[in-house]
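In the lab's daily routine, each protein ends up as an entry in a very long ledger. A line of letters takes care of the sequence, but it says nothing directly about the fold. The fold becomes a row of whole numbers, each drawn from a learned catalogue of backbone shapes. The protein below has been through that process, and both of its lines are reproduced in full:
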Amino acid sequence: MADSSAVPMEGSAAANRRVSVLARHLESSSSDVDSNEPSLYASLTSGSDGDSVFAHVVKAPEDPILGVTIAYNKDPSPVKLNLGVGAYRTEEGKPLVLNVVKRAELQLVNNRSRVKEYLPITGLAEFNKLSAKLIFGDDSPAIRENRVTTVQCLSGTGSLRVGAEFLARHYYQRTIYIPQPTWGNHPKVFTLAGLSVKTYCYYDPTTRGLNIQGLLDDLGSAPPGAIVLLHACAHNPTGVDPTLEQWETIRQLIRSKGLLPFFDSAYQGFASGGLDADAQSVRMFVTDGGECLVAQSYAKNMGLYGERVGALSIVCGTADVASRVESQLKLVIRPMYSNPPIHGASIVATILRDRNMFNEWTVDLKAMADRIISMRQKLFEALRGRGIPGDWSHIIKQIGMFTYTGLNSKQVAFMTKEFHIYMTSDGRISMAGLNSKTVPHLADAIHAAVKLNA
């Protein structure tokens, strides 16, 4: 009869042999590594002494916009004022959730048939359809002819990134011209997507208005087919928009040169208070039958900042091309985030489909835009009342959430240190962050900054 203990002994011996072979293998592998090189094995197994395979990573600088809020939050001063972040605030300085948004959410919550299943790669179909109509118009020939493909994306940033990656893969010209200055995230989004970024003249610091001739000269010398980023309205950071006549001149140049317009529409309805008025520039480029891209965001105009709701629309030459473009957009989105979130898009679709809710939303939009316009007027009057040197009329001429004050980085630093007012170093301020009580404080700070740091 065989000894029953033999099997476990043999198993144990085999296990010991495997351990010995593994140990010899590790020793021989480690001997092949340059003694001056950090050992991967040591890094992975010696956590007790604080070593890390990421020890070489350097601390990155704060985002120039979001970093303003971080600095603001650390300041204990009771009079501190944050004018850096692009988020709407009420007259009381509080974040605002629109009543119509609350009603839409209540509808969604009370709908017991709703589920949390994945959306398609392209997102919520109804949201896409209604978003296209919102920016292009109900009677848009491009929509009527099925030449528009729209996909739900992660707010404006995500829409820009998906569009940029699609262009980097499928468009023959990989150079994009962006205005100087522009939103700080634009260069990063386009560069990381694989496009080459160049700039065109936009802002005139002397007049604090549009440098239309510089713009036309730069785009006129761009290579045929180059992509051109255009702010649909309420240019960020300057608040300077072309007039309709200037838009028409820009359109004619872009079409004559065969350039491809890529609109960033982050403020539709939020700038002037009118949805149609703020979409006029985009619609001019669609009515002419040409192709373009449009990135939409509902962060500002519906106050859905944290829901990350946006859409990318590509207007194509034919319905067949639009269908093929959509198929390739899916291949961009799938490995990036697979499919978009459902909640925010459902809120937007609920409001856009319901006539009463839609009308209530337009009233809210007008109220928000009007409050910002009133803050411009109050600030202008406060600056003029203090006799501050210079012409400050650009405060009321500019439009939208932001004002390019004309203050330099030294003056901005002075205002932060002495008056606890936070803004980006280029002097851009969010008018939505002001209220009647804080306007005098800002005016006093600007007065002191200009006087001491002229």
Notes: Residues 1-11, 37-43 have pLDDT under 50 and may be disordered.
